[in-house]
Write a structure and sequence with these properties.
By secondary structure, the protein is of the alpha/beta class. It has helices at 17-28, 48-58, 73-83, 102-112, 150-160, 173-178, 190-201, 221-226, 229-246, 253-286, 292-319, 326-332, 337-363, 366-379, 383-386, 389-401, 416-453, 463-488, 492-515, 522-541, 560-582, 585-593, 595-620, 623-631, 635-669, 681-705, 713-734, 736-768; strands spanning 7-13, 36-41, 62-66, 88-93, 97-98, 118-126, 132-135, 146-148, 170-172, 204-215, 404-406, 412-414. The strands form 2 sheets. Strands 1, 2, 3, 4, 5, 6, 7, 8, 9 and 10 form a 10-stranded mixed beta sheet that branches. α10 packs antiparallel against α11.
């Protein structure tokens, strides 16, 4: 600790006596003690001076500076910072509070990157009484602490605009002085301007963790500025002029043009937001003890304020020509390269499948369509041979990959011990899947033969296609661990790109076979094309990656019995039970209502699964990130990532569900010939709503399993059995509508609340530890 740079803390106070003791105590309790604590009082008229003097008597590091008259926040901050004698200085408003760990985490990062001109963190917002208002919405430029170089900072500023300056930001004193400190003519924007100049000149450090609070007071310095649009506009013009005259080499005109538009846009929104909050604050003062009617009235006003703010945002967006806002929108929606490639793969696959659905409905009879989808449902029995290994592989590999990487040639580099454990994991699962693929061929093939032969339909030749399809499904099953291992090693984007290629190839072969009139042989032919494409792509792109897996690992090995089995057996039971959740619908319809209704059910389930499948990409593509964040105990970053991805996924599944339902409605409304191939609008809507609720549980499920645990075994078994029983009871009697209602009731009233309770309990335990 003594070898690290020194730090001075500067507190600026004006009539904040009621907050001052808490702010000073938070500084004194930091694990990294500052060399000095300079308190600048700006001619306060309350009891601030006596509070500061009382603290100074017990803590010699506290030094008091007083202004003869009120000079303002910027003057006082500059006076305190210029009086500091340390290498680094931190500016803290007396009504804000820093959180434990701010100084230590910031200074350790700054010591590792001595060029950096400042370090900023995320913040939590509180109201005047100290009530938590949640985390401030900010640009998450990284999911882990990092140094942002000047070149990276310039690109981030061009793409997204400045990220927020946090209370408790730490500045390199020399850089602060060389950039002219806080500019009085910029008022409340002086810290943001200084931070941008430091980022462009020296680079800055960023910690994606809330380590400070920012009090949202109606009469605060920034709130008063937001309430005066003319003053805010003037600040923007002055900032642009300063950048052009004093920092011409740092600020190209393209950057300044975008910065000015974004700053003006933010100023407009902040003004409207401050105005709305002030009105609502006044209403709450009028109703200190609101009745139910009062609370309803205020809630309606809040909703109206939010809607009007959205409308004004749209207006300002157009007026200020914010057409460069795509990077900002992409960041808010979590659309990084991994998600975008995964989405492209999923959408491309679904489009190819949609064409396949149309061609199946066109070139296969209703009975052949029923057999085709029944084949697919029976193949779902291979879940029983998987034993949950695929999800185990991804989660366990991600924890090892946190200490590994791949070089430009695709070879694994990094910690030898973690590489050895990864290799031992890979060898274990490859051996298991080689054996399991034989089980799939024999077990699933026999089960399918017995089931299909018990419901004979004359004129349909199904035995040959079924046996060939079973063999090819076994080969594909044996390749699954390689793809899961690569996903766990943070190769999600590349693997999804490969998936797009081999699935489109398989669909192209399927279309050709359908046009040629090959009947049920289209299923094994397309499966053969998919297996061949997977083998070619793995050999072409990942031969070097898998080379270490050929020989025994020289170092420590992963224990199957001690580490993997405790999670795997629970996942296996969950997978067994999960078969009834999604694979029982079509066989029940086939058995009780015939192949035509089974075909309707199969095609509709494929349709309604599309929005859920696309929306899940946001979350599934980040499973390796979840595991690596947990391995590094970065739970705050994990929470933010999960929340952002879930919001984007919910938006996507709702939009997609609306499109699917509208398509089905139009087919029936216009009595299209394909209407009879899918379920009517009502059961379709029920399945879609159930999938929206299901998506809300996908993120928490990935979160929980990323801890290398399976706490969802019991809930999986109970809900799957309940769905299976209701699908059989209601589906056999009421057909597809009864099956859909049974499915929705279990998801809404059993699975979702139960999963939410488990997630909240586990998350609280993680944060407490």
């Amino acid at each position: 600790m003594g070898e690290l740079p020194s730090l001075s803390a500067v507190l600026v106070n004006y009539n904040h006596g009621r907050y001052l003791a808490e702010a000073l105590q938070a500084v004194l309790e930091q694990s990294y003690p500052p060399l000095e604590i300079i308190v600048v009082d700006d001619a306060s008229q309350d009891d601030s001076i006596s509070i500061i003097q009382a603290f100074a008597r017990n803590h010699p590091a506290i030094r008091l500076l007083t202004n003869d008259r009120n000079q303002g926040t910027v003057f006082s901050a500059n006076r305190g910072l210029q009086s500091a004698t340390s290498d680094y200085v931190v500016f803290i408003a007396a009504d804000d509070k820093i959180l434990p760990g701010l100084f230590e985490k910031s200074m350790l990062l700054l010591a590792s990157h001595p060029r950096a001109g400042a370090c900023t963190v995320l913040v939590r917002l509180v109201d005047e009484s100290g009530r938590d208002l949640g985390e401030q919405k900010d640009l998450l430029i990284s999911t882990s602490p990092r140094y942002v170089s000047p070149d990276d900072a310039r690109q981030i500023l061009l793409d997204y605009g400045p990220w927020n300056m946090s209370p408790g930001a730490i500045y390199k004193r020399q850089s602060y002085l060389e950039c002219g400190g806080f500019r009085p003519e910029l008022g409340s924007s002086s810290d943001a301007f200084l931070f941008v100049m430091l980022a462009l000149r020296d680079g800055v450090c960023f910690i994606p963790e809330p380590l400070a609070t920012w009090r949202q007071a109606a009469e605060s310095y920034s709130s008063r500025t937001y309430a005066d649009p003319a003053a805010m506009r003037q600040q923007v013009h002055r900032a642009m002029a300063l950048a052009r005259t004093e920092f011409p080499g740092l600020c190209p005109e393209s950057l300044l043009t975008r910065w000015e538009a974004r700053w003006t846009y933010s100023a407009c929104i902040n003004y409207l937001d401050a105005l709305s909050k002030k009105r609502l604050f006044g209403l709450r003062l009028l109703f200190p003890h609101p009745s139910l009617l009062d609370r309803t009235f205020i809630a309606c006003l809040e909703a109206a304020s939010a809607l009007s703010l959205l409308l004004f945002k749209t207006c300002f967006f157009i007026r200020l020509k914010r057409w460069d806002a795509w990077p900002v929108l992409a960041n808010k929606l979590g659309l990084d390269r991994t998600v975008l490639v995964s989405l492209a793969s999923k959408v491309g696959t679904l489009l190819a499948s949609a064409i396949g659905l149309w061609m199946i409905g066109t070139y296969l009879t209703r009975d052949l369509q029923g057999y085709y989808y029944t084949f697919a449902s029976i193949l779902g029995l291979q879940t029983f041979a998987d034993l949950g290994f695929c999800l185990v592989i991804t989660n366990f590999a991600s924890h090892e990959w946190a200490q590994l990487d791949a070089d430009k040639d695709g070879r694994i580099t990094g910690n030898p011990e973690h590489l050895s454990r990864l290799v031992s994991l890979g060898r274990l699962v490859i051996k298991w899947y080689a054996l399991a693929s034989v089980i799939v061929v024999l077990g699933v093939g026999t089960a399918g033969y017995l089931f299909l032969s018990s419901n004979p339909h004359t004129g349909i030749i199904w035995l040959g296609p079924w046996l060939c399809l079973t063999v090819l499904a076994g080969v594909k099953f044996g390749l699954a661990p390689m793809l899961s291992l690569l996903e766990g090693c943070n190769q999600v984007a590349n693997i999804n790109a490969l998936r797009l290629v081999h699935r489109v190839s398989a669909n192209a072969v399927l279309w050709t076979a359908l046009v040629l009139g090959l009947g049920l042989w289209v299923a094994p032919i397309s499966a053969a094309a998919e297996v061949l494409a997977i083998l070619i792509l793995l050999a072409a792109f990942y031969a070097r990656f898998f080379r270490p897996f050929i020989s025994q690992p020289p170092g420590p090995r992963m224990s199957w019995r001690g580490e993997i089995w405790p999670m795997q057996w629970r996942l296996a039971i969950s997978a067994f039970a999960g078969y009834f959740t999604y694979s029982l619908f079509t066989p029940v319809m086939f058995h009780y209502h015939g192949p035509a209704v089974a075909g309707q059910m199969g095609m509709s389930l494929t349709l309604v699964a599309a929005p859920l499948s696309i929306a899940s990409v946001w979350l599934a593509s980040k499973i390796p990130d979840f595991g690596m964040l947990i391995a590094n105990k970065e739970y705050a970053t994990l929470d933010r990532l999960l929340l952002k991805l879930t919001k984007a996924a919910v938006l996507a599944v709702c939009a997609g569900s609306a499109v699917v339902w509208l398509l089905v409605y139009l087919l029936y409304h216009f009595d299209h010939r394909l209407a009879g191939r899918v379920l009517p609008p009502l059961p379709t809507a029920i399945f879609l709503f159930a999938h929206i609720l299901t998506l809300l549980g996908v993120g928490p499920a990935y979160y929980l399993r990323a801890h290398k645990e399976e706490p969802l075994m019991v809930i999986s078994v109970v809900t799957s059995l309940a769905i299976g029983i209701l699908v059989w009871l209601l589906g056999s009697r009421l057909g597809p509508l009864g099956a859909a209602c049974g499915y929705l009731s279990v998801i809404a009233f059993l699975m979702f609340p139960w999963l939410a309770a488990i997630f909240l309990r586990k998350r609280a335990a993680c944060l407490n530890n």
